[in-house]
Amino acid sequence: MYQVVDTLSDMSSSSIFSLPIGLILVLLASVGLIVGLLVLLVGLSTWISTRRASKRSAADSISNAAVRRARIGRIGGLIAGAVIGVLTWFATDGILAQAFVGVGYLLGMLAFELQPPIQAAGSIRVASLQARSAWQYLLRWAVPGHDRRRVSYPGGASGVRRCATT
Amino acid sequence: MVALSLPFAIMAAAALAAWIPLMRKVARLPQPVNEASESGRVATSRANAARAVTGAVLGIGLLSLAGVVGASSTLFDAFTHGTAYIFGRIMVGLGIGLAVAGLVVWSILSRWRSVPVEPADPAPAEPRIA
Fold first, then answer.
1. Which end of chain B has the least Cβ crowding within 10 Å, N or C?
2. What b/e readout covers A65-87, taking b as 16+ CB neighbours within 10 angstroms?
3. By the CB < 8 Å criterion, does A74 face chain B?
């Protein structure tokens, strides 16, 4: 004697394929609007500007490497964040999708752009000290008086330049 | 409404909290001294990173704020006329405007620009050879 248990009906009732086609279209439109538009705008902006910068400094291999690292990190992070956001769409009701995109973008930057490049080591070392703080890199309009020279930067020296030359 | 607003508020707070260590990381990036004469180039990549971090944090903050405002506008759904109705419509418009502003700010600040950053110290120290 066999007892037939229908597990398919429970599965299909919670599946996306059991939804009416109109609802699926609305869902896709909302995913596209919330995640796709963000990824498209930021990704295109990054892609176009870095491509332009690469062409402008075609002869400079160090600049090109920095621009390439930035492009890969930012766009890769955006796409990874968007994928995670879409995959967790139902679990988070789509609320955290944009946060995942942002986290992916920042992590991509942290992994590629904000890692110091590997430098060649040699017998002659040259070094200098220069005061540097995060305030220096704030947007111009965010700094009081719009003039960085008149602003006293809190924090003091925070950066040590080091390089090896052969 | 609170249940819907809380994730957005946490999102904005987390973005702001992440901004400080990221900017510190940008400022602490080592810089080769043999490129000191071409500081514009090196400063450009650092300034671009700082701008991109700021843009992402601002964008996430504005999008979260848009979410909070949008969630709050549901309080006025019951009203079909009068001042409360108009206030609800204004909040919906404000939410959409903030979301668009977040997208635009993030897109603009993520552009790679070639303008060098002015150094904090007008007369930087000469390199010392050891």
1. C
2. ebbebbbebbbbbbbbbbebbbe
3. yes
